[in-house]
Design goal:
Strand order of the largest sheet: 1-4-6-5
Order of helices and strands: EEEHEEEEEEHEEHEEHH
Distance between the termini: 80 Å
Number of helices: 5
Strand content: 25-35%
Number of domains: 3
Radius of gyration: 28 Å
Helix content: 25-40%
Shape: elongated
């Protein structure tokens, strides 16, 4: 039989990354790839596209044809590999071709800029995309009047995106300005709750921080009730 002109390999394995791939079943190092003497090694396992070369051996991951996780910003591709020996040497050219339609987007919104839950839904719906997985985090300090229920927002946007996740990590503000007299119900309530919040936040304990976050919402609702506002629990 005639001797092979091109040496091509195919392997399902992960490229070694110290401290990250120690427990993977099949791991290959760049040195091992170089020692194969191949012209091209097609790798499978990673879901994100990657191309590299080591000592004359070109190797690449095509990745998944559609992204399957939020952190896979290099997925959704295939590779066009051209083998050229017209100039008397083996030249391997790898080109990416985008085929995936699914995209992921993480977005942080400052709660202070949101007027209401319906306004938030309208803002997000304006960017509707049936191929988009949208991950929203509400951050910052929110006004007392803002009441957002993440599950309701997700339900309202179901038909506008491939998937939507809404997380509210914003916090109600502490009281500003001159407080009501400590002899009043409002003044006693605010001082009592804010004193407890300060102690919990200063402790540095994770459970205490969670309780402090919950107490901030108690403070917000209490201020609204004491001001005669309607509150939905």
């Amino acid at each position: 039989m005639p001797q092979a002109t091109w040496k091509i390999g195919l392997l399902h394995a992960t490229l070694a990354i110290p401290g990250r791939t120690d427990h993977d079943e099949v791991v290959v190092t760049a040195e091992e790839i170089a020692a194969t003497g191949l012209d091209y090694l097609a790798l499978g396992h990673w879901h994100s596209a990657q191309t590299a070369k080591t000592k004359g051996v070109t190797y690449a991951y095509a990745g998944a044809p559609e992204p399957v996780a939020v952190d896979q910003d290099r997925a959704g591709k295939v590779l066009l590999v051209t083998l050229d020996d017209g100039a008397g040497a083996h030249v391997v050219k790898v080109e990416e071709r985008t085929v995936g339609r699914t995209t992921f987007e993480r977005r942080e919104l400052d709660a202070a800029t949101i007027e209401s839950q319906p306004a938030l839904i309208a803002k997000l719906k304006a960017g509707a995309n049936p191929d988009l997985v949208l991950d929203i985090r509400l951050i910052g300090v929110r006004p007392d009047s803002l009441d957002v229920e993440p599950l309701e927002v997700e339900d309202a946007l179901k038909g506008s995106f491939l998937r939507v996740r809404v997380r509210d990590v914003s916090q109600p503000a502490l009281s500003e300005g001159v407080l009501p007299s400590a002899e009043t119900i409002a003044g006693a309530f605010i001082r009592n709750v804010e004193g407890r919040i300060a102690d919990l936040e200063a402790s540095g304990d994770k459970l205490a921080e969670r309780e402090a976050h919950e107490l901030r919402d108690v403070l917000r609702l209490g201020r609204l009730l004491l001001a005669g506002e309607e509150v939905t629990l």
